[in-house]
Amino acid sequence: MNPLSDIVEGSGSEDTSVTSPMTTTLEFGGTHVVRPKGEHQATIVWLHGMGDKGLSWYQFFETLRLPNIKWICPTAPTRPVAFFGGFPCTSWSDVEDISETAIDDLEGLDASAAHIANLLSAEPCNIKLGIGGFNMGGTLALYSGICQVLGHYRNGNAYPINLHAVVGLSGWLPCSSTLREWIEASDEAKNRAASLPILLCHGSSDEVVAYEHGERSAETLTSLGFQNLAFKSYDGLGHYTIPEETEEVCKWLTATLELKGNSSDP
């Protein structure tokens, strides 16, 4: 095992289940951690897409030259997903469709967001916290950011952590049809929205989550007062990542989190 990592399997002694404040108990899979190779300044939970697992991104972040970031890569529960005709796969919530009009599984989103917040709540108070992800992982990252802005999950429970960065790659905005009503109901939420740093990236040739979803996500958030938002598009990019996009994320995180001695240079 790599000395810079810890691997906690879901079948081990650590309790990886989270009981939703509604009715459902979800069993999360293994959580994989890449520890910083330099001074620990930030911790980011990175969330995989539907059908994937944390191990895939753990292997990627082992080689990424951001020495002051600790990466936590959890694995979503396996559940039936309506988008796949009810076929079970790893997913942070049920997904009916990838569209602005689809009904969101708020119970599933709340439970997964709470699991992610629990992972970050154990970090030292001087460490900056972030959440990012790919595909639906980016969607859950945005949902977590929304919960911070509102100050609570949709079930009413308080959101317990302070996020310094949210990153979404090839994802979409959940709850877009009701988000305006939620934000405009609170002046405090408007203030939080204005200051939350968000980076969204999307490929113009994405064949899974159409580019228009990423573009509209950025437009909707901007119209709701998310002033500290950057949207990057990549001509010809499909539903995957490329070095150019990775470099953009690294530079943005370094600047946004004000990381010292932290760059992608050799």
UniProtKB/TrEMBL annotation:
GO molecular function, one term: hydrolase activity
InterPro entries (UniProt xref): AB_hydrolase_fold, PLipase/COase/thioEstase
Domain spans labelled Phospholipase/carboxylesterase/thioesterase: 32-255
Region of interest: Disordered: 1-22
Compositional bias segments (type: Polar residues): 13-22
Pfam families, per database record: Abhydrolase_2 (PF02230)
Source taxon at top rank: Eukaryota
UniProt-recorded name of the protein: Phospholipase/carboxylesterase/thioesterase domain-containing protein
Organism lineage: Eukaryota, Viridiplantae, Streptophyta, Embryophyta, Tracheophyta
